[in-house]
Amino acid sequence: MQKRIVLIFVLTLLCSGFADALTLERINYGNMNSWVKRNIKESAIIGGNHRTLYEIGPNLTINGDTPYVNKGNSPWATSNVMAKVTGVTKTSNAVFPEARQGDGMCAKLCTILEHVKAMGIINMDVLVSGSIFLGHVFEPIKSTSNPYSKMEMGVPYTKRPDFLVFDYKVYAPGGNRVYSSGFGSKKTIAGQDFAEVYILLQRRWEDAKGNLHAKRVGTGRERFGSSLSNWVNDHRIKVHYGNITNQPFYKSYMGLIDKNNAYYARNSKGKMVPVIEEGWADANETPTHVLVMASSGCGTAYTGTVGMTLWIDNIAFGFE
Fold first, then answer.
1. For the chain, what are the domain ranges?
2. pTM for the whole thing?
3. Which residues contact 240 (CB under 8 A, 6 or more apart)?
4. I need a surface site. Which of 135, 148, 239, 315 has the fewest CB within 10 A?
């Protein structure tokens, strides 16, 4: 009798484990164990500093101010960029590789103020939130206006995952947000920023004029505002399909992307145009593209809490 009870208990545990098991589809380079290292010298007029920028991709080193394109079929882009404005080369790096004890490397995403000083003529700060996302950045950056037009957000994808799965930890320093685009004085905005991770599935199409349209197929989005010093492993963000605005878990930031803050992509003519989310797709629709982003900030461009840091690792799609 006692053996039967033990056997039933073991079988129950096993069945429970299988029911909770996920099939993981690892995103290429999502284990953050290899990085491209870029060594760039900035223009002499702003100090001629030697800077190192990091990109998620194969282990290699690039010397010089060559505009970066994704290497080794990496789907990942970062907020680390090289800008050239009126012939002046300036770089920004807010995403770093960091050793993770016993588990290779991870990505460290930081909110920082990049300082630019040019022989007493220019003296300004630009706030940068460290971000990684599926897509491309088009270097060199030539201005701070309309930052989304300088990156292509999302990659083709037709599957319907149940979760976005990853490991993470957070440092939230508290304090207010800062807005600083480099033009005009810095502004303090009440309230702390949040780190954020999301997965958005879209069904996109192009009209006869080359405009890109989309409907939202799936949504998973979470914000983090409290410090977590220990790693949370295998964290899951549930992907909800169809119109979720009437669901109890719905929050305003899960809604459709406002057309004034639309992300961009290349149309069939090779032109960068905004992707306008026009509504919610049916819950059983098949997506054409997936957007995945992790960031140390969740506000508008050039706005955030300096010092906010998100560590992230082992990013994958999960299927029940």
1. 23-312
2. 0.90
3. 218, 219, 220, 247, 249
4. 148
The secondary structure of the chain, three-state, reads CHHHHHHHHHHHHHHHHHHHCCEEEECCCCCCCCEEEEEEECCHHHCCCEEEEEEECCCEEEECCCCCCCCCCCCEEECCEEEEECCEEEEECCEEEEECCCCCEEEEEEEEEEEEEECCCEEEEEEEECEEEEEEECCCECCCCCHHHHEEECEECCCCCCEEEEEEEEECCCCCEEECECCCCCEEECCCCCEEEEEEEEEEEECCCCCEEEEEEEEEEEEECCCEEEEEEEEEEECEECCCCCCCCCCHHHCCCCHHHCCEEECCCCCEEEEEEEEECCCCCCCCEEEEEEECCCCCCCEECCCCEEEEEEEEEEEC
Cβ–Cβ under 8 Å, residues 172 and 192: yes
- In CATH terms, the fold of domain 23-312 is Jelly Rolls (2.60.120)
The residue to which tokens 């194969």 are assigned: 58
Residue 108 pairs with which residues in a beta bridge?
Answer: 96, 311
